[in-house]
Amino acid sequence: MRRAGLGEGGPGNYVASGYSVYEEENEHLQEGLRAKVTALKSLSIDIGTEVKYQNKMLDDMDTDFDSTGGLLGATIGRVKQLSRGSQTKLLCYMLLFCLFVFFVLYWFIKLR
C-alpha cells in the first residue's frame, strides 16, 4: 500500500530528498519567524518603557497644574475680596498699573 509522502521502501521510510526539502524550508521559515518575534518583543518592551515615561511625565504635569490652579484660585479669591471692600479705587490703580507694565514689556520686546 502506497501513501503520499512515503517511499518505496519499508513502512515508515520517507523519501530523503522530499523530506529534507520540507524540513529545510520549515527551519528557514522558523528562523525568520523567530527573528520577527524577537523584533516584536524588543519593540513592545521599548513601547512599554516609553509609556511608563510618558505616564510619569503626565503625573508630574498634573501635579504642577494642580498646584498652579490652587495658587491661581487663592489669588482670584483675594482679588474678589479686595473688590468687595471699599478699596475699588485701589483696585483700579492696580489694574491700570498692570496694563502699563504689560504695554511697556510689549513695547520693549517689539523694539528688540
Give a short summary of the structure.
This protein is mainly alpha-helical.
Provide an overview of this structure.
It is a single chain. This protein is mostly helical and 112 residues long. It has a domain at 14-86. It has helices at residues 16-84, 88-111. The radius of gyration is 38 Å and the shape is rod-shaped. Residues 6-11 have low confidence and may be disordered. InterPro entries: BET1_SNARE, T_SNARE_dom.
Task: Give the overall pLDDT as a whole number.
Answer: 83
Number of strands: 0
Strand/helix succession: HH
Number of helices: 2
Residues in helices, as a percent range: over 70%
| Beta-strand residue fraction | under 5%
The structural class is mainly alpha
Taking all Cα atoms into account, the compactness measure Rg is 38 Å
Uncertain stretches: 6-11
Biggest sheet details: none
Subunit structure: Interacts with SNARE complex members GOSR2, SEC22B and STX5. Interacts with LMAN1/ERGIC53. Interacts with STX17.
GO biological process, one term: vesicle-mediated transport
Family: Belongs to the BET1 family.
Membrane topology: Single-pass type IV membrane protein; Single-pass membrane protein
List the helices and strands and how they pair.
Blueprint: H1 16-84, H2 88-111
Features:
endoplasmic reticulum; 112 residues; mainly alpha; single chain; 2 helices; coiled coil; transmembrane
